[in-house]
Amino acid sequence: MNSLRLLFYSIVSGVLLAFSWPEIGLVPLIFIAWIPLFFVEDYMLHSRTRYGALKFYGYAYLAFLIWNVLSTYWVKNASFEGALMAFFANSAIMAGVFSIAHGLRKRMPSVRSWIYFPILWLAFEHIHHNWELSWPWLTLGNSLAGMHPLAQWYEYTGTLGGSLWILLVNLFIYRAIRLRMTNPEKPVLSNFRLPLLVLIVPSILSLIQYYTYIEKSDGIAKVAIIQPNVDPYLKFNGNSFDEQMKTILQLSRSVVDSTTDWLIGPETALVGSMDEKHIAEYPRMQTVAQFVSLYPKLNLLIGAETHHFYLPGDEVPITARKTNDPDVYYDSYNTALLLKDGKYEFYHKSKLVPGVEQMPFPWLFKHIEAFAIDLGGTTGTLGRQDERTVFVGKNANQKVAPSICYESVYGDFMQNYIRSGANFIAIITNDGWWGETPGYRQHLAYAKLRAIESRRDVIRSANTGVSAVINQRGDIIDSRPYWVPSAIKADIHLNNSLTIYSITGDFIGLSSMILGAWLLLYGWIVIPIKQRRIKKAPQESTV
User: Fold this and answer.
1) 3-class SS at 436?
2) Looking at the structure, do residues 314 and 383 belong to the same domain, yes or no?
3) Bridge-partner residues for 450, per DSSP?
């Protein structure tokens, strides 16, 4: 196999991975997308020509760069520099994981060494959900958001269960092809029996779940959702706060009545940062509070920009910034605000977008915070909270998980809300940064997976679309189109029961991290020690 063919196979894998992604191509392609790259890896592993680690890394990097660029190209609409950083950095990390698996196969050759890669990849996906350079958009299991009837078993495994399934199907098909190539006289079915079973059985079981699932209901909540449709690039400086407030109130009046339990508004709907200690004193908040007071059952959940001051003697977190007074610091927040009975509660966004809302590793890079990507509003490293806040409504049986934008991509993170008692999910977001691209539609699709994993109804309020209501099977039962000011009224089911995934969390990712750490320890430490001892043994015996 010459270099051109290796290059071609790498390109094919990158293209297949990209065009298997929701809202871009055909999702079933994900089950064969890795196969060309496996041919590259296997050839370079067994070839008589010695291929250096850097050359293998280059082929892998090309495939992953194509995947990243073609499937998330829309990030450039928000920030070209940020997109380049995401494309190149994420591709580099992915290629590094694949190269480590390749290196392990060289160090620990075995007929079962193919299993190293899925273990390390799942460990990587788990880490990529939890560290400060987190970018889990391309988690393999997310691809099934485009075919959610096949992802019903995520209530047991979470999204990484889908990643494992996809990798195993690809590996088994690849191995079947290799066996067919080495023994063409053997019946075709005997080679492909296992990959077909691994592909078909979970699909059938998931479809049975999907068509037989009955919505769980521990009560009904009446919700109203608004989609103000304010251009996000004008929202923070071009449109007046008064005009935006007028739009919010007009839409709210169109859907709220005396029976409404919840009014949900999008991320940063209340623009202009407000001091949380004195929030009731702001004229726009007084206008909002007056509107809410007209409806006896109403709880308002809406996005806002807020801040908190730390005075001399207060414990100051690393995210805090200095004011003009050198002894006074403050934190800025992307906030979900609950207003009920004239009182305010706050949840501060915890999963922050790297490079926009968070400078990764602030203890190291805090001094270059000024280079954070500006998307309007508050930029730089925002304050955040470590524990999830579940908002309890006036009816104490209604408990909502307030997820802000990017947080809804994190399945295991969202289960912390569910374990804390949330019986439905509200996603507030502002997706207009990316324009008319697959970006906002992918974000909507991922919300289906959160509904399935927790078996919770999901209500989604997006400033610039798509606002939607999603049931416990992951079906979108009502929605509003992109770039249209609108509102939704809906009755949703409350569910207090926990799924297996809600109880266990990301056990697949954690298990893979443990196994992956053992593989790395054994391959790069134990084996070299054994080899050195073997080399020394003959010398010692002659003394």
Assistant:
1) coil
2) yes
3) none
Tens of pLDDT, residues 363-413? 555 554 444 444 444 445 799 998 999 999 999 999 999 999 999 999 999
The domain total for the chain is: 2
Q: For residue 287, is pLDDT > 70?
A: yes
168: which 2 tokens? 């195993």
Closest CA to 11 of 42, 31, 45, 36: 36
Please provide the size of the chain in residues: 543
* Domain contains 333: yes
Pick from 223, 226, 225: which is nearest to 485 by CA?
A: 226
The whole-number pLDDT of residue 52 equals 84
Does residue 392 share a domain with residue 512? no
Closest Cα to residue 255, out of 285, 288, 222, 231? 222
Residue 485 and residue 346 in one domain: yes
Please state which of the ranges 13-27, 236-250, 369-383, 433-447 shows the lowest mean pLDDT: 369-383
Say whether both 348 and 495 belong to one domain. yes
Sign of CA dihedral 452, 453, 456, 459: negative
Note whether residue 38 is domain-resident. yes
Alpha helices in 475-506 (DSSP H): 500-504
pLDDT in tens, 296-309: 999 999 999 999 99
CA atoms lying within 13 Å on the CB side of residue 159: 29
Collapsed DSSP state (helix, strand, coil) of residue 170: helix
Q: What is the pLDDT of residue 353?
A: 86
> Both 39 and 84 in a single domain?
yes
Task: Please report whether residue 541 resides in a domain.
Answer: no
Q: 31-45, 508-522, 523-537: which range is least confident on average?
A: 523-537
> What is the average per-residue pLDDT within 225-243?
84
pLDDT digits (tens, 9 = 90+) for 315-354: 999 889 889 888 899 999 999 999 999 999 999 999 998 8
Statement to judge: residues 258 and 400 lie in one domain: yes
User: Domain check: are 513 and 398 in the same one?
Assistant: no
Residue 457: domain span? 220-503
Do both 429 and 521 map to the same domain? no
Q: Could you tell me what percentage of the chain is helix, strand and coil, using 3-state DSSP and rounding each to the nearest 5?
A: 55, 15, 30
CA distance 179 to 157: 31
Measured distance between the N- and C-terminal CA atoms of the chain, rounded to whole angstroms: 49
CATH number reported for the structural domain that contains residue 493 in this entry: 3.60.110.10
Cα–Cα nearest to 386, from 413, 406, 354 = 413
Which letter does DSSP use for residue 394 in this model?
S
- Which amino acid belongs to residue 281? E
